[in-house]
Design brief:
The protein is mainly alpha-helical. The chain has one domain. A two-stranded antiparallel ribbon has the order 1-2. Helix 1 runs antiparallel to helix 4 and helix 4 runs antiparallel to helix 5.
Length: 210
């Protein structure tokens, strides 16, 4: 019995064996390919939407943290009741030696820095990683566009444009999360350094006038 001479072929929309029986393997593999492609496009679409929702959540969380941290630093930076006032009162009431004053200052500044820098690590992480999350959403959107193009669906042009727009929105939201977070971290760090430097300067003046 002669073995059928099957040859593998591939085009833009299906794969099949040449010389296969009519309505046989070619039709079956083409159907399976279309089903898998449709499932893949649906999966990528939902993953892209989840990425967009995640980016929106990151944006809101970052904004809330920035506002909360700004309010906390305003209290700590208040000349009448903030960190400077607490340090000067504690140092004025201290009666130890110069070495003990150094130890007191070092411990106070470490505690003050730790309290003031609470939350900055999270903002730094958001600012550093949000663009990559947005880029991930963009890549998924482009993959989705090529999948739609490969299926040659009617109205594919409008669907491709919508997918590309969605992909670019992911990048835009990622940058919208990152830029304010990075700017806020830099501004908060500068304010914290100024407060600690003022405390250090007061300590030097205190020791110089003893």
């Amino acid at each position: 019995m002669k073995t059928p001479n099957y040859q593998f072929a591939l085009d833009a929309s299906e794969f099949y064996f040449v010389n296969s029986p009519p309505g046989g393997f070619r039709q079956s593999t083409s159907f399976h390919y279309d089903v898998l492609m449709a499932l893949w496009i649906v999966a990528v679409t939902w993953i892209t939407k989840l990425v967009l929702l995640g980016l929106v959540g990151m944006s809101l969380y970052s904004l809330a943290m920035i506002l909360k941290k700004n309010a906390a630093l305003k209290v700590m930076d208040d000349p009448s009741s903030g960190v400077r006032k607490e340090f000067t009162d504690k140092l004025a009431a201290f009666k130890g030696s110069s070495e003990q004053v150094e130890h007191l200052t070092r411990g106070f500044l470490i505690d003050a820095r730790t309290n003031m820098e609470t939350g900055l690590t999270t903002l730094t992480t958001l600012g550093a990683n949000a663009p990559y999350v947005g880029l991930f959403g963009t890549v998924l959107g482009i993959i989705q566009s090529f999948g739609i193009l490969a299926r040659n669906d009617q109205g594919a042009s409008s669907m491709i444009m919508a997918s590309i727009a969605e992909a670019l929105i992911a990048t835009a939201i990622g940058l919208f999360v990152a830029i304010p977070a990075v700017v806020a971290v830099n501004g908060f760090s500068r304010r914290i350094k100024t407060i600690l430097a003022d405390c250090e300067a007061f300590k030097e003046n205190y020791l110089g006038n003893r």
